[in-house]
Design a protein that fits this description.
eight-stranded mixed sheet, two-stranded parallel ribbon, 12 strands, elongated
Length: 379
Amino acid sequence: MIGRRTTYRMADGIRVPGTWRHAFIRNGDYHLTDLFIYADGLIDCWGLVTLEEFEEKLRSGWVATELPDGARASGFGLAAWKFGEPRSWHTPELLLAEVRDTIDELNGRPDSTDRCLAAVDAFLADRTEEKRAAARAAYLAIPATQRHYALGDMDRKDWPLQVLVAGVGGHMERRPEVEVTQEAHDEAIAYFEERDRWIAERPSRVLADGPAEPVAPAIHLYQSYPLKPSDDPGTKGLRNDYPAPITVDGVTYPSVAHAYWALSIADAAVGSAITAESSVFEARKLAVGAPLHDGWEHARTAVLTALLRAKYAQHPALARALLATGDATLVYDDSDSAFWGDQGGRGRNWTGRLLELVRSELHAGSAGVLPGATVAPGH
């Protein structure tokens, strides 16, 4: 299970999602470390390897699943110790199976648990012993460490699943001395029928303030030079340096970027020069190195929020372009700032986040929830 353990690596400018888990590397002594697993099937076990190469690392003991009594170990440079009566939950085959499942999960493909439940559904639809045998084989293909969680039922664990795939007169996988009775089998059938009803109803169960549909894919607002006015700029119109003049406190600025830089500067004369400059590039050059207002770093998000609100209030066509992004995550390029831009996942993307805030306000205004944030209808 990946849970919240999400990470990534950059490969040829592409962000490859991944996750990690703890493992022991045997390099002389044993080292407790993190094993990084990526969606493209590469695994970092003190060096990126393919899945096939990882299997060899397991077979050779480089990635250790056997921990000998008395062997020396260390962990993350924090401590060192010797194993005393160690017990390992894994074999090379079991760890490899879990890693394969993780790669499937990272890619949104069915993993061994999903394949087992699909086989169970096939058996319930056509209750032949052939289909039961297929379901049993699929159950046994789930890594033993994960079978408990196959149904996502913390009370019953996988007990109904064991009973179902064993069949009447069969024996439980973890309790081979237990013979499945007709009563126990009927209970397992009833469990799965109820589970199917619950799953069928689940799509209609939406949190009170949650979206009824899946979230939209992220939209990348790429940096582009130069930006020129257009009747249909698309998402380029959402850039702060797009030439959409805004008027704030009686002053008209050629763009949000002009306004932001001009307002940041303590010297009023430099601020006026920035405002008068038509070129975003030249305006930025004037701002670079000029003294900022005291405490600007604490005020800047509020200032940009106000400027964005002004832009989309004063340019209904651009407001409609922003609304057209739905609920997509807005990833904003800014090569100059890891605070305002995403920078390949390393930045904080505050511009994108504030655009999403203003978009939400516009949606609220259009719905009549937030008066004053309405958008003029399209032509």
